[in-house]
Fold this sequence. Notes:
Layout: E1 3-10, E2 19-22, E3 27-31, H1 38-48, E4 78-86, E5 101-109, E6 113-118, E7 121-123, H2 125-134, E8 144-145, H3 149-155, H4 158-161, H5 163-169, H6 172-356, H7 360-436, H8 440-536, E9 552-553, H9 558-565, E10 598-599, E11 604-605, H10 611-614, E12 617-619, H11 623-629, E13 638-640, E14 646-648, E15 653-654, H12 661-804, H13 810-889, H14 892-974, H15 981-984, H16 996-1011, H17 1020-1082, E16 1086-1092, E17 1101-1107, E18 1114-1115, H18 1121-1138, E19 1143-1147, H19 1155-1171, E20 1175-1179, H20 1183-1188, E21 1191-1199, E22 1202-1209, H21 1210-1217
Amino acid sequence: MVQFDKLRLSGFKSFVDPTELAIESGMTGIVGPNGCGKSNLVEALKWVMGETSAKQMRGSEMEDVIFAGAGTRPARNIAEVMLTLDNKTRTAPAMVNDTDQLDVMRRIERGHGSAYSVNGREIRARDVQTLFADAATGSRSTAMVSQGRIGAIINAKPADRRTIIDEAAGITGLYARRHEAELRLRAAEQNLARVQDVLVALEEQHKGLKRQARQASRYRNLSDHIRRAEAAVLALKLATAERELAESGERLREAEAQVADLTRLVGLSTTAQAEAATALPPLRNEEAAAAAALQRLRVAHDALTAEAERVAHAQQDAETRLQQTDADLARERGRKGDAEAAIADLSSQRCRLEQDQVGEEDRAAAAQMARDTAQADTVSAETEHDRLTRQIADDEALRQSVGREIAELQERLRRLVVRRDEVVVQQNEIETELASLPALPEVEAALEAARASLDTARRHGQETIEAAREAARYESDAARLAVAKAEAERIDMERARAAERQAAEASHATAAEIVQKTNARLTKLRAEEAGVAAALKSAAGSLWPPLLDALTVEPGFEKALGAAFGDDLEASSDRGAPAHWLQLAPFAVAPALPSGATPLGAHVEALPELARRIAFIGIVADEATGEALQAALEPGQQLVTREGAVWRWDGYTMRAGAPSTAAVRLSQRNRLAEIRQQIDAVVIEQAAEQARADAEAGWLAAARNAERSCIEQARQHERSVAAAARRKTEDAGEATRAAERAAQTTIAGAERAATTARDRHTEVARRTDQLRTRLAGIERTRAEIAGDIADAEMRRTFREARLSAISDTQADRAAAGTLRVSIAELRAALLDAEGTCDRLAREAAMRVERLGQIAQDHAGWSTRLGDADGQILELDARREQIAAAIAELEAKPAEIEANRLTLGEEIAKADGNRQQAADRLAVGETRLGEADKALRQAEGELAGARESRVRREGQVEQATKDREAIVERIAERLRCEPDGVLALAEVQSLDELPEIDKAEHRLERLVHERETMGAVNLRAEEEASELEQQITGMTSERDDLVAAIGRLRQGIQSLNREGRERFVVAFEQVSGHFQQLFTKLFGGGKAELRLTESEDPLEAGLEIHASPPGKKLQVMSLLSGGEQALTALSLLFAVFMTNPAPICVLDEVDAPLDDLNVERFCALVDDIAGRTDTRFLIITHHRVTMARMDRLYGVTMSEQGVSQLVSVNLKEADRMVA
């Protein structure tokens, strides 16, 4: 089988980086903390083997297997998993069995789904699943024991649990093939039903086409009459259209003459209007020039009026400015006087301040010297006072400190005396209690005696228990031998009955297969009969049934008869049919056929209607004979071959080709008779085979009943033997347990006595040691207290001597008081001296500051005085300019008034000139208006004439279009020239035709008669021929489907038979391995597998009965949790032993087991790995399991959300250590 070599994954869940897991022989362990991604490796393996459920991948959709991003890692869009398989044995399916190594890859991309490939070649998901199913593995096989799989097996229903045996038998692939065959069978049956429906529909359609062909003939006759009637109507309409066209042309010529006359009148009116318009512009220019001159004079008059107003305003402004200037001069002269007075005052203040500065430095030096002397005396007195104060404070602090220490030492001496008295009392109490305890040697002697009694009781109890257990083992061995003998007898009985049943089943299967083949033949014949009969019934419902249906011809002569008659056999014998055969008396003397030809009538049961025709038809052996005899034929005679070649007396010759419709129908009738004969024979055969199959079924039922009865009796005997053995074993066990209880009671009494003695010895020893330890501690404490008392008395003596040596502080306090009075007087004198110095300094500073301010004010007033002088000069000049302007403005009003009078006279003269020009312009505009009116009237009449001409042109055009439309309709409907219409109407002239109304009425009547026929299929005859060919093809397709359905049913039965055989064999093997592995894992006990719920192994359920050591046989659901886990593991490993898978994945299956059972589990896995080629991947947290692995892979998550893989080869490490 194929072997798994390695697993590569990239971008799959938490394994974002490319990771490779080598799958080597033996046991490979995968360890790591919870949540690090161990189970992701198992899911990657299941995913690449074709898992299609996102739920099995612990996701909501399949794209959840792509790395979704974590921390600093962005999300991926693609995930890939590749599984490398070793195919050196070349056991893979044929489609991929061309190399020694298979690289199975599955790749998924967001938004595009997943795809599979093998060695780079794309492949279907079903093919990948079949590849692994044939290798006894797959995404959901028992080899993939994921977390919770053990619990799922324990809690599964028997029908679901049976799939484990299916995988052991290797029939999972058979189920898939059977399911595919069943799908094909259902599809074929559906197709057959559809073909049957289509055939029925086609037959009905063929009947309709026959009726449509007869309607088509009537339709063609009506169409000929309609063509002649339509030609008559169109000829009349063409004559009417040509007459209307001539009349419209005459009216158009009259309108064109009227338009020409009116055009000349419009030309004259246009000339008069142009002359009036030409004379008008000079008049307009003259009137505009006069108006412009008048406007200019008026504008100049308005300008003089505005100038007079401006001069008046200017005079008023000049007088206002003159008054303002006078006011400014008076103000500037006042400011000049103020500046002169301020300058004189500032000069007098500066002289006084300069006099006060004389002797200022001498006064300041004397005040500074007095302040320094007072400050030195104050500092000296304060220093002496501080020294006396510190000395007084030090002496007082030392006296208080020594007093506190003496008080503390006296308190400590008191506490030490009290503590010494308490310790003396405790020492006396301990010595008294120590004297009251028992002697330690006596207690030790009692302890040794109790221990000797306990040893004696244990020895006697062990001997009693061993004797009882030996008796129980003897009874158990005897019971086991009895049970084994009964079980062997049952197995022999089951095998014998199973052989009989299998022989009966084989015989019944053979009979059933023969019945099925007979049924298939009968079904095929009946389907063919139905198709042929349906085809022959196509003309049964015809109004005039063809004569062909009444003929009977020998097989092989159908083509000859069909070629001789052709479509003539489609005619009916009914005289009411458009085409029919009449019954005439036969010729009295018919001409003889040439030598070498035989009469066709010898092979046909002819009707009286065909007697004359068939007497002239002969059969020849081949085409050469027909060609040779054709010249010798009499009038009306013809020769035919069985293949359908025809030679007629008039020289007409037709080679053999496709059979005619009549030949096909005659062949179908002969085939129908043959089929019915075969059906009768097959029905008889079916009844015989069915009787045989029923007999075989009765034999099979009897064999099964006998098997069940014998097996039940054997099992009942086995259960009774097992029950008796179990009772003996239980009795022996009860005796053993009674002996154990008695021995345990005796031993327990001895143990209690020994425990009491040991506790008393321990208590005495512990109390003695405790009291002696306390006594030693108390003695040490007394010594320490005595030393502390002596030390405290010595330290108190030293402190009292130091206190008496401290000096008195009263003299220092008196001297300090005197110094404080002197310091107060010195500080007052210092304050007076400092005040004097500060006052002299402030006065000097104020004088300096005031002198600076006086200098600034003097400069400012001097600047103001200069500015006032300049402003006075400027204002005097401005006053003189304003006075001159006022004098100039007083002379202008008289000049402006004289100019206004002159302009008034010129304006009156210009107004008269403009009025004369306006009168001349009005006369010219009146002449132009009259010319425009005359022109508009002429143009209106011309427009009316033109409209009339356009209407008549439209009438001519419409008449022309009507004639052209009739001509086009003649060409379209009649397909001839207008000159040939009368010929189509079958008349010589228009006078022979009726009136247009009557002709149209006749045409409408004919058209209505044709339309009342309904839809007419003019291709009915062609379509009927095509439909017959289609019916023939569909009949062949139906026959193929019937044969395919029979083959599919036979194939499904073969798959079921093979599945049952392989299942039974695998069940026996798995059951044997299961019993062995259960005994090995539990160290004894018994277990068995049973099929329930159905007699058919492929539909039965699987129930597990187990009996751990010391327990009765019961279903697995009644066992404890650990026992259920071990039982399920035994079943899984039994499957591996029966049909070893290339790989087995165990995901934390050792979690519910204790250390002892984990050891057994690891030993079993190691044993299976050594005996088979199965490679184990074990995910575990158990240290015992880790220690038993050949190699370990560790899964870590050093980076949040990203898994990494590290490996350690433990075998190689052991070799290196060795």
